[in-house]
Automatic annotation (TrEMBL):
<keyword id="KW-0723">Serine/threonine-protein kinase</keyword>
<dbReference type="GO" id="GO:0004674">
    <property type="term" value="F:protein serine/threonine kinase activity"/>
</dbReference>
<keyword id="KW-0418">Kinase</keyword>
<keyword id="KW-0808">Transferase</keyword>
<dbReference type="InterPro" id="IPR010194">
    <property type="entry name" value="Anti-sigma_F"/>
</dbReference>
<keyword id="KW-0749">Sporulation</keyword>
<keyword id="KW-0067">ATP-binding</keyword>
<keyword id="KW-0547">Nucleotide-binding</keyword>
<dbReference type="GO" id="GO:0042174">
    <property type="term" value="P:negative regulation of sporulation resulting in formation of a cellular spore"/>
</dbReference>
<dbReference type="InterPro" id="IPR050267">
    <property type="entry name" value="Anti-sigma-factor_SerPK"/>
</dbReference>
<dbReference type="GO" id="GO:0016989">
    <property type="term" value="F:sigma factor antagonist activity"/>
</dbReference>
<feature type="domain" description="Histidine kinase/HSP90-like ATPase">
    <location>
        <begin position="37"/>
        <end position="141"/>
    </location>
</feature>
<dbReference type="InterPro" id="IPR036890">
    <property type="entry name" value="HATPase_C_sf"/>
</dbReference>
<dbReference type="GO" id="GO:0005524">
    <property type="term" value="F:ATP binding"/>
</dbReference>
<dbReference type="Pfam" id="PF13581">
    <property type="entry name" value="HATPase_c_2"/>
</dbReference>
<protein>
    <submittedName>
        <fullName>Anti-sigma F factor</fullName>
        <ecNumber>2.7.11.1</ecNumber>
    </submittedName>
</protein>
<dbReference type="InterPro" id="IPR003594">
    <property type="entry name" value="HATPase_dom"/>
</dbReference>
Amino acid sequence: MKNTNYMKLEFASKSTNEAFARVVVAAFASQLDPTIEEISDIKTAVSEAVTNSIIHGYENAEGMVTIESRIVDNEIEIIIKDDGKGIDDLEKALEPFYTSKPELERSGMGFTVMETFMDKLEVVSEPGKGTKVRMIKKFKSLPNKE
């Protein structure tokens, strides 16, 4: 039988909530008894996805960001969604160093960072409707059974 758990979090698209989102997902993942490196990978990937929603999806305007996370056995799935402006050219956006905001520091590496730190990355976006980022990470350890 599979050991499963689920959580959902919704918060305002404010940059101050990025750290909150990162810590909540890390706390949820902690039931898998992750290594420090695994937790760091998840926090970094979540941080990048949430920051993209706030800065690119909503362009720092009001909106909501939703995080859903599911644990099945030794794997965590994290979905981060926004109803922002969407991505016009997703293929180009997934290229390293591409950015729609060259004036921002450290722009153009978000998706590359997510892809590097997670085992799987899927991005679905529709201009005018928003973006959904789905990431999966497998942990070396098995979760504690309740």
